[in-house]
Amino acid sequence: MTSVANIIASAATVEQRSRTMLGDTITFGEPTDITTTCDSQLSTEPWQIDTEPGYGPGASTNDEAPSTAPHQGPIPAEYTDASEAELDARIIAAKETLGDRLKILGHFYQRDEIVKYADFVGDSFMLAQAAKDHPETEAFVFCGVHFMAETADILSDEQQSVILPNLAAGCSMADMATIDQVEEAWEQLMQVLGTSNDERAEVIPVTYMNSSAAIKAFCGRNDGIVCTSSNATTVLEWAFERGKRVIFFPDQHLGRNTAKAMGLTEEQMPLWRPYLPMGGNTQQQLEDAKVILWNGFCSVHKRFTVAQIDKARADYPDVTVIAHPECPAPVVEAADGVGSTEYIRKAIEAGQPGDVFAVGTEINLVNRLQAQHPEMTIFCLDPVICPCSTMYRIHPAYLAWVLEGLVEGQVHNQICVDATVATDASVALERMLAARP
Ligand code: 13P
Ligand code: SF4
C-alpha cells in the first residue's frame, strides 16, 4: 500500500523536470492585469519565428514550450515570398487538381485566409468525426493544431494520410501534460489508492482531446476515455459509472467547470501539480476526491475575467455573454451560456437582429461571427487582440506548399502516430464516440 516517503523521493526528479517546463509562472483564479502580457505583434510571419524556441507571439507567448515540441523547418522561398494573390491562385489550382482525393479540415480558430479553403470547418469533435467519416479521401490537410491532426490520423484508415501544414502548430495546453508526467502521477495514485475491491475502479483517467496521442493511448490502456468540450459531461458520467473518481488531463478549467455543473464541490476537485509529490495533495484529499484536476490551462482562455463581463454588461445592458469552458470557473459562472466553439457558433446563429453577444473565446472565431452577422453586435470579451499562438502558425504559404507537394506526389509534414499508440488511443476515442449523447 502507500509508501508516501517513496513517492516523495521518486517525485523529486519529476519536480525538477516539470518545473523547468511549467516554470513558476502559473497563476490560479482571476489574473490581475493581463492586458499587457499578450504579445500580439502578429505582423511577424510564422516562418520568421518557426525555428525559434517557444510558442512565439500570441496568447501562449509566455508559456514554456517543452524541448519535445515539434519544430517546422524552412519551406522554399517561392512560397514565403509569394503574394497573397499568387498563393490564392496556387492553392485553388492544387485543390482542383487533387479533387476528391483531398479534404481540407479547418478549425474555427483558423484565420479567414485559411478557413476559406476548408471543406469542413468545425470544432475539434466535428473535425475528428469528419476524418473518420471519409474513408474515400486519400489525404486530409488539417488546418488546426498537432493534437487534432494526430486524432485524425488515429481515426482515419491506414492508407490515408494526415498532413499538418506547419509542424510548429502545437498547443501549449496539450504540452502541459507529458506522458512521463502522466505515468508518474498514475503510479503514485495507484500506490496511494490501491486496487479497488468492488466493480468500480479507484480512478478512471479522462483526457481532453487537447492532449498528445500518447496520453490518449494511456487512457485507452487504463480503462479511460477522451472527451471534448462538447461532450465532457457525458464522458464524466460514463467515467463515474465505472470508477469512484477521475483524473482529468490536462485542462483544469474544463474539468472543474464540468464537474461543478454536475454538482461537485471545489473540495472534491484537488489540483494535481505534476512537479510535486502526490501532486501536492495529502492522501486524504486524494481519497476524498471525485475529480483530480491536472494543472494545465489554455493561455487564450485564461485571459478572460469577470471584470470584462461586468464591463460588457455595463456597456450593453442586454448583452448575452457566452464563454468557452476552458475559461476559469468564475468567468463561466458569470456568463449566460457556456460551450464548445460549435455551441458558441450555434448560439449566435440563433440570435435576432440587434442582439449583442460578448464572447469568451479565440478572436478569429469571434471576428468571423461578427462578419457573418452584421445585423448583430458580436465582440470578444478580451480587449486585447490576442490570438492562439499556435493556430496562427498555419498560413496560406504552408498550405500552398503541402498541397503542391501532394500534386507532385510528395507528402510533406505527414502526422504518423505510432501503430501501438494509435491502437490504444483509438480505444479511448471510440469510447468517447460511443458515449456521445
Ligand atoms: P473546441 O473543441 O471547442 O473546438 O475547442 C478546441 C480548442 O482548442 C479550444 O481552445
Ligand atoms: Fe491550445 Fe488554447 Fe490554442 Fe486551443 S486556443 S489550441 S487550447 S492554446
TrEMBL record:
Which Pfam families does the record match to this protein? NadA
The places in or outside the cell where this protein is found are: Cytoplasm
Segments of this protein annotated with the region Disordered: 26-77
Q: Which reaction does it catalyse?
A: iminosuccinate + dihydroxyacetone phosphate = quinolinate + phosphate + 2 H2O + H(+)
Residues involved in iminosuccinate binding: H107, S124, Y208, M209, N210, S229, H324, P325, E326, T341
Cofactor entry: [4Fe-4S] cluster
Keywords of the record, alphabetical order, are: 4Fe-4S, Cytoplasm, Iron, Iron-sulfur, Metal-binding, Pyridine nucleotide biosynthesis, Transferase
Task: Please give the InterPro entries that the UniProt record associates with this protein.
Answer: NadA, NadA_sf, Quinolinate_synth_A_type3
Compositional bias (Polar residues) = 33-46
Task: Name the Enzyme Commission number(s) assigned to this protein.
Answer: 2.5.1.72
Q: How is the cofactor bound?
A: Binds 1 [4Fe-4S] cluster per subunit.
| UniProt pathway | Cofactor biosynthesis; NAD(+) biosynthesis; quinolinate from iminoaspartate: step 1/1
User: In which broad location class does this protein mainly occur, judging by the first location in its UniProt entry?
Assistant: cytoplasm
Q: Which domain of life is it from?
A: Bacteria
SUPFAM superfamilies in UniProt: NadA-like (SSF142754)
User: Which residues are [4Fe-4S] cluster-binding?
Assistant: C171, C298, C388
Instruction: Please give the PANTHER family that the UniProt record associates with this protein.
Output: QUINOLINATE SYNTHASE, CHLOROPLASTIC, QUINOLINATE SYNTHETASE A
Q: What is the annotated role of this protein in its UniProt record?
A: Catalyzes the condensation of iminoaspartate with dihydroxyacetone phosphate to form quinolinate.
Record-given protein name? Quinolinate synthase
Q: Which gene encodes it?
A: nadA
